[in-house]
Amino acid sequence: MQSLEALARDARALANGDVVPALPLTGAESEVARQLQICNACRYCEGFCAVFPAMTRRLEFPKADIHFLANLCHNCGACLHACQYAPPHEFAVNIPKAMAQVRGQTYVDYAWPPALGTLYQRNGLTLALASAAGLALFLVLAVALHGQGLAALWSTPVGGFYGIFPHNLLVGLFAPVFLFTTLALGLGVRRFWRDVTPATSGAPLSAPATAEATNAVLRLKYLDGGHGDGCHNEDDAYTLARRRCHHLTFYGFVLCFAATSVATLYHYLLGQPAPYDLPSIPKLLGAAGGVSLLLGTAGLWRLNLRRHPEHGDAAQKPMDRGFIALLFLTAASGLALWAARGTAALPLLLCVHLGAVMALFATLPYGKFAHGIFRTAALLRHAVEKRQPNPVGLGAD
What we know:
By secondary structure, the chain is an all-alpha fold. The protein is built from 15 helices and no strands. It folds into two domains: 99 residues, no CATH class; 250 residues, no CATH class. It is elongated, with a radius of gyration of 24 Å. The model has no long low-confidence stretch (mean pLDDT 88).
């Protein structure tokens, strides 16, 4: 019935001359549409991930559908290694690479504010490390000028790290950055959601769909290659290494964020200011998260360096590595800061850690972190759409 109603609306709009012309496709989007037409005729990879079942519900691929499918793709590489039409075949079907190029374009298109979208194209390893180093240097100079010159950087402070940077000053530095990051990502994904919702049945979220999508996100379901043995990295061998390293990184980040959140509650509700030590909850969460983040990012860096060149968009590798490097530096400096508590190394390590954290959050809206936000939105829309009648299948409305 929904398909009939949509057709009726289109017919009325056509009769009234109210039809809005389809948005033109970019070169990358046209290439995705071409390859998906071939895939739709073959369907060998239908069981690999969410992209191919979603693809079979479509006979053509307008811009919104392409944006939805590109962000649904987890770039696991399984379809490339299974495809009989992959390069050097004249059809040159390479779904992971084509989807990655469009995915990068969507980050730019949906960035907020729009003028900052070009930062995605410049957000590389050099910029990430330079940002962290610059912010750390700024904090080093602040400590030196406020204290007894450079000697203040190598001395045991009275009152822990709050003796170096007061709590209210840290809140004043980091709260605006965090709020802007949340706002920028929220407004960007809101526009993406608004555009892809009509292309994915238009049906609202339901509890079962939300639960299914949440399960897929938390388990990284679509990094299992469709059969549970994993996807590909540098060759034809299946590996679960990417899934495991992503899990370590994701849950390490979540635990570190939880540690900060709990510490905030300790400070304001319980009147217990930092620093905390074992076995306090903030320290347990932070230590576990830091180690997990350290191991996960080290593994992702190694996998990224060895990744098959046809598995993605080479132009986005600097952005990928910049994000990995900032996460690693944040985890490593945080653990070093804990180890150096009560020593003369504390002021310098605190500057390095705070510089890395601020650089990480300042670049979050315009870096690789966005892929997790947009992919979650795409998985939610996929879980909704799959529960609707197939508009092009047998017995469709």
